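Example record

The entry below shows one chain as it appears in the dataset: sequence first, then structure tokens.
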Amino acid sequence: MQIFFILSKMSFTKIRGNQCQSVAKVFFWIVTLGFVIETPVIAQSDFSRVTPGRDFSFPQDHNIHADFQTEWWYVTANLLGEDGLTYGAQFTLFRNNLLVGGKPQPIFFAHAALTTPSEFFHAERFARADMGHGGIESEPWVAFLDHWQFKGTGKNPLPGSLSVIEKDFGYDLKLSKSPYFLQGENGFSKKNSDGSTASYYYSAPFIKLDGQIHFDGKSVKVTGDAWFDREWSSTAIIGGALGWDWLALHLDADTALMLYTVRSAGENYLSGTIMKASGQQRRLSAIDIHWRPLEWAEFNDRKYPIVWQLAIPSEDIELTITPINNNQFLDATTQYWEGAVKTSGSHSVRGYLELFGY
């Protein structure tokens, strides 16, 4: 199939999960199949492995790691509007390699979302790297796909700005600096107990922001807190029922919490980190964390656990976690639930929750 080489630009948008849905899925899979049918799928052995002991280097590690199969740049934001309402915003840029003519061909795709107390807007876009419609530029630093842009300062993402504009929604946000934290074992983030599935992972959880969000023909000034995550890897989650749950909370102005559970090959691997704005951090293991779902909601005939109970006795944390809007389901080419949450209990705070693989 030569359709991929006929297309000069692989880029489209899907809004609210229903407009252009069939076009998006057909177009994406036709182009992807153009790769797969013409040449073999890339094996993980064709790329560098994630192993312990990496020496992270900034600002270089903010950029593309072409010797790894996949990576992503990810921002979530909990927002308070001048109207007194709470909102959420998400932006994720992914890079993945497919094999074309025996050589890796980078493909970029991005998701953007805006949550209000009563509505949820989202869109996705795809682009070929070699056509210049998506990628990372190192100086000045920018992660972009078409007109969606996460711009940094000099060679660094932070401080920076984040801009997404679509027909039905958008946001323009200014992001402050934040210290970076290496997750897991000095940035080696295991996704199973033996570490055979892992990523390199770091976070910037103490970002302050201000700006505007746009929806329903109006704009609202907002302030809030944002979280920037970076991961890259060459290994996939394999075997059995797959999926993960990820949680990020701003516990107070100086404390952030990240947790995840990965479900694969009959194992639930649970890990987390407490981070302090001073730069201190503490790794959490499964014995520290008591995290269980309380309520479920159904989207596209699948049930997702959108209300949770969390206890970390060693940190005096006991929370009930609920969405600010139950319907934050991204009906994208890859479907998942991700959205802004709030807590009650020992802390009354905000954060983001991601649920994949249900």
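Notes for this example: Residues 3-43+67-356 form a domain with the AttH-like fold fold (CATH 2.40.370.10). Residues 21-38 form the longest helix (18 residues).
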